[in-house]
Amino acid sequence: MDTLNKLAAPATAKIRQLQKMVQDIKKNDGSLLNKIRRLKSKPRPNVPARDYRGKNSATTAQYMSKIILITKK
Fold this sequence. Notes:
Elements lengths: L1 H40 L15 H16 L1
């Protein structure tokens, strides 16, 4: 049993060291890759088209009168 432990001990130490290396690589690369993915995956937002009022004074006057009536209530 003792000889088995002597043979297995270096292998388990190497496996642990390898696991730590893999975890560190995943940790560091993962954050970098996630940042790149976020930059690539976010599409530009669609801005809705605004309908601006024209220069028609009659329409503007009607609009202003409606606002005045609403605010007086």
